[in-house]
Amino acid sequence: MIAVAMSGGVDSSVAAALLQKQGHAVRGVFMAFGQPDLAVQVERVRRVAAALAVELAVVDVAATFRREVLDYFRAAYLAGRTPNPCVVCNPTVKFGRLLAEVRGMGCVAMATGHYARLERAGDQVRLLKGADPKKDQSYFLHRLGQEQLASLLFPLGGFSKDHVRELAAGFGIAGVHGSESQDVCFLQGTTVVDFLEAQGQIPAAGEIVRADGTVLGRHLGIHRYTIGQRRGLGLPDATPYYVVGLDAANNRVLVGKDAELWRDFLRLREVNWLAGEPPPLPARLTVKIRYRHAGAPATIEATGGGALAVRFEVPQRAITPGQFAVFYAGDEVVGGGEIV
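Request: output the structure for the sequence above.
Response:
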């Protein structure tokens, strides 16, 4: 029996249908993490499961999600970092708590609708980019370990999104699955600012300053800003100002011109190597500093205590603390860590 993490969207629905077509016994699992529209989402998934004649289990992961994702999300913004909750959710909740529940059901593996590929070589599992460069989601999976990867299947990894839609029509589920979400799952219908302020966590207003300390204006709370931001600063000038730093200790937003956003160096913490250990360092790899970043060649060096330094051959724009730098060797994900 293979469990499929089903959301009701086209990707997970087609993943389940493909596994059935390959002759596998499939069971659907839905991750309930405290969504405000939980009943609506469960009903949507039940319609897909019924269309595929798949048994569905709703798994309550709300406590784990709150502790591992929501608390992290809030703390990062209040500390002047820009978090990536999907990167954190995958190893701790989806492929952590949910995978453990699936194993308890007696399932031999868990599949998802991620656009990524797995390649098994002996006792190692390699994580590779999805075949569709516009949908590749390997970046979000770089914190997984070998024990998790060994239990996973990504049936859509070799397909394009257009082909997946065609498959949905062929399986007769094109009118059953719901629309897919492009945003952070727990922010549906709201914004980061509204979400944080609803928790009663509203950082005080403070100064907007240049790097030399010159005060140019006032901000409404550092949680409203991120590196590279241009809009909402209220600082008219001949050329635009951008956010170039967030000083949480002094409650300041640092601004500068575009040239000040370009850097060739960053440091990382909480580094994960997918093989379980690092390659020989220093190493020259391609590094992505955010999901939509094309990636750039860089040299990676150890700096002690598990931390790493990354030096790019060409400066990169808007390197952002709290985001994740992910290392690639060709199509293979080698590792990654949080930018500090």
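The domain at 204-256 is CATH 2.30.30.280 (SH3 type barrels.).
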